[in-house]
Amino acid sequence: MDAPAEVTFLPLLLGGIGLLLLLAGGFVWFVVTYQRRLFQQQLQQRGTEAAHQNALLAAIITAQEAERERIGRDLHDDVASSIAMAKMLVDRLAADPPDADMPALLGLAREVLGSAVQEVRTVSHSLYPAMLARVGLVHALQHLADLSRRAETLRVEFEAHYPHPLPLVQELALYRICQELIYNSLKHAQGATLLAIRLWQHEAHLALTVDDNGCGFEAPGPPAETAGVGLRSIAVRVEMLNARLVQHSAPGHGTQTRIELDHPAA
Fold first, then answer.
1. Helical residues (DSSP H) of 75-198, grouped into ranges
2. pLDDT in tens, 24-76
3. Strand-pair partners of 246
4. Which of 159, 175, 196 minimizes the C-alpha distance to 241?
5. 218: DSSP letter
6. What is the extent of the structural domain holding 135?
7. Are 261 and 243 members of one domain?
């Protein structure tokens, strides 16, 4: 006698339900595992970003402290010594009986005080270039080029096409980068006869280049951990600008450093 159709269908139904439950359980396990891995990746990424931000902050603080140390040294060695010398000369002028060579002492005191005034201006300019806020980045960089031209024997050229200015904070970062690159070229580019500074905007891209035809160097540059304070401060500012730093150099072929950033016209 044949079994009823309901009895034959029941095992199939139960098997199908079991298979569906198994598939559903497998899907839930996959989703939970995937979400767990995604969460772990997000935590790892946040940890990496936090570590990077801490390293960036530490580099900024190190650069600031080095700058404060340099300014303090300049104030102590140059400004303070000039003022102390001027005070000694004034004391001699006020002596009783007065010094016989008063005109010469007065002229020397004026010269020393004039030197102190110039030193204070130099220090204050290094703290914040007032010219940048007053007349903009192009004129501030032109002033840097003029100062370098007067201080050194090499030819200094400056070229700019900058129709759409950046915000002042970003301009200050570019100015400091250029200032440090010029200093590096003047200090390390032995045998250089030309220093070329160029600020150029083309469509949505802005580039600052500082080139010299000095001795150059073999390696592309020291690692961030062993780089000097100046190079670390450049790297920090490049990162703050979300820019790119490209440097080319070879022995006897000078050094070209280029800072590139996206700057869509307003």
1. 81-93, 102-127, 130-135, 137-151, 168-188
2. 778 788 888 888 888 788 778 777 777 766 666 666 666 666 666 667 776 76
3. 258
4. 175
5. S
6. 128-266
7. yes
Task: Name 206's Cβ contacts closer than 8 Å, sequence gap at least 6.
Answer: 162, 166, 199, 200, 260, 261, 262, 263
Place of tokens 């820019």: 243
Q: Please give the radius of gyration of the chain, using alpha carbons only, rounded to the nearest integer.
A: 33
Last residue of a domain, one of 127, 149, 176: 127
Can you give the CATH number for the domain in which 158 is found? 3.30.565.10
| Whether the predicted model's global pTM rises above the 0.90 cut | no
Two tokens, residue 148: 């370098």
**DSSP code of 77?**
I
Q: Are residues 264 and 136 in the same domain?
A: yes
Q: Does residue 168 sit in the same domain as residue 209? A: yes
Residue 40 sits in the same domain as residue 139: no
Q: Each residue of 117-168: pLDDT tens digit?
A: 777 766 666 666 767 877 889 999 998 888 888 766 788 999 999 999 999 8
Q: List CB contacts of 234: < 8 A, sequence separation 6 or more.
A: 177, 180, 181, 245
- Per-residue tokens: 230: 């100046």
Residues 114 and 64 in one domain: yes
How many domains does the structure of the chain reveal? 2
Asked whether residue 42 falls in the same domain as residue 97, the answer is: yes
